[in-house]
Amino acid sequence: MQTAMWLKLGVAGLVVAFCTLLGYLAAAKYRARRAYFDQLYALNERFLSELAYSRRPVSELLQEGGFRGEFAETVTAFCARKGAAIPERLLSERERAVVSDYFSMLGRGDARSQTGYFTAKRQDLAAFRADSAAEAKKRGELYLRLGVLAGLAAVILIL
């Protein structure tokens, strides 16, 4: 009798853990979107400081960026002169337009006009960054809780 009870508890724990993992994986899109805008905002800040002080080439700045995920793919495509590979699954139509416009202006024109343009873009990027962080937090918690609840419901049905 004791062995059957431990077996049921073990299976119940595994089911809850598995469903929680599914909830965590379901929220991956929102975490990736947040990381994308965090990196884009950091690039913008770094580019503005480069324009003000050292004025190195854009390709050199981008190569030492240490980017990851979808944003790294966007930067790699831009550096390869293929245009920016903007992820459609992560960004809305408006966000894609702003990011495309951002990369089309990167490294074009003189330092003064670029400083003005990228300083103005700082507000848009900060808004996208804040929205994506809030949505990632909200959706991440929601999907995690739904995973736990689905696991508990499955345990109740199984037992």
State the main characteristics.
159 residues; 81% helix
Explained architecture:
The chain has 159 residues and is mainly alpha-helical. It contains 6 helices and no strands. The longest helix is centred in the last third of the chain and has 48 residues, at 111-158. 20% of the residues are buried.
Give the arrangement of secondary structure elements:
Elements: H1 2-26, H2 28-52, H3 58-63, H4 69-79, H5 93-105, H6 111-158
Helix pairs in contact: 1-6, 2-6, 5-6
Outline the biggest β-sheet.
Answer: none
Query: What is the distance, rounded to the nearest whole angstrom, between the alpha carbons of the first and last residues?
Result: 15 Å
Structural class: mainly alpha
Name the helicity range. Answer: over 70%
What ranges have pLDDT less than 50 throughout 5 or more consecutive residues? none
How much β-strand is present in the residues?
under 5%
Helix-strand sequence = HHHHHH
Count of distinct strands: 0
Tell me, rounded to a whole number, the average pLDDT: 87
Number of helices: 6
Radius of gyration: 22 Å
Basic shape: elongated
